[in-house]
């Protein structure tokens, strides 16, 4: 199995809580023989729009990676009770998949599994997870049990500088069981084929 993580951090440089949490989960996915690739969206040019193809941007190659994957994971921080603008731009560009479905054709993303990785310093995980799960469901992507890993912690607050080592230690102490359950859930779905 292959998983693709679309990393929606707004940080182009420096330590990103969401990037470290995605790395943390990747380790658990790899223990289940799930190959993992992370695409940091902030490092790519993704134009505004509601179609997959656009002139001179990186989204068509990102979309191809989604098609080549079994698992699609959106990793996002929470900003004002919503997912990041980087994730929103991907959602908007994938609107064309919904157009394909409305034409009566099968979804190009059907039979793929989806999940959510979220960081924040206050509540909002359920709201963001629900929005992304609804989006995935509308495109034919299956959300398994334990399909989200959300970490709400004051240590994520804006201005709180953490090292990747400190973040990984915290995640391992508090969220190892959640990450393991998520990884095993994806593996279990694949073994039912």
Explain this structure to me?
With 193 residues, this protein is α/β, with parallel strands linked by helices. The protein has a single domain (2-191), classed as 3-Layer(aba) Sandwich (Rossmann fold), CATH 3.40.50. Helices cover 43% and strands 17% of the residues. The chain is built from 6 helices and 5 strands, in the order βαβαβααβαβα. It has helices at residues 17-31, 59-67, 85-93, 95-102, 125-138, 164-191, and strands at residues 2-7, 35-40, 71-77, 113-120, 148-152. The protein has a 5-stranded parallel β-sheet with strand order 2-1-3-4-5, with helices on both faces. The mean pLDDT is 94.
Please specify the SSE layout and strand pairing.
Elements: E1 2-7, H1 17-31, E2 35-40, H2 59-67, E3 71-77, H3 85-93, H4 95-102, E4 113-120, H5 125-138, E5 148-152, H6 164-191
| End-to-end gap | 12 Å
Main sheet, how many strands, which sense, barrel?
5 strands, parallel
Order of helices and strands: EHEHEHHEHEH
Q: What's the CATH H-level homologous superfamily?
A: Flavodoxin domain
List keywords for this structure.
193 residues; Rossmann fold; alpha/beta
How do you describe this structure in short?
This protein is of the alpha/beta class. The protein has 6 helices and 5 strands; from the N terminus they run βαβαβααβαβα. A 5-stranded parallel β-sheet has the order 2-1-3-4-5, with helices on both faces.
């Amino acid at each position: 199995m292959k998983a693709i993580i679309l990393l929606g951090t707004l940080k182009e440089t420096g330590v990103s809580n969401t990037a470290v949490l995605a790395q943390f989960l990747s380790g658990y996915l790899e223990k289940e023989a799930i190959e993992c690739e992370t695409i940091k969206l902030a490092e790519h040019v993704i134009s505004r729009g509601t179609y997959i193809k656009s002139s001179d941007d990186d989204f068509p190659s990102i979309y191809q990676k989604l098609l080549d994957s079994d698992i699609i994971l959106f990793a996002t921080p929470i900003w004002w009770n919503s997912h990041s603008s980087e994730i929103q731009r991907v959602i908007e560009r994938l609107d064309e998949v919904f157009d394909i479905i409305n034409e009566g054709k099968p979804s190009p993303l059907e039979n793929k599994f989806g999940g959510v990785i979220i960081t924040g310093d206050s509540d909002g995980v359920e709201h963001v997870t629900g929005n992304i799960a609804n989006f995935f469901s509308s495109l034919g992507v299956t959300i398994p049990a334990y399909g989200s890993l959300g970490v709400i912690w004051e240590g994520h607050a804006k201005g709180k500088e953490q090292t990747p080592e400190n973040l990984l230690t915290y995640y391992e102490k508090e969220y190892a069981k959640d990450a393991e359950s998520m990884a095993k859930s994806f593996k279990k779905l694949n073994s039912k084929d």
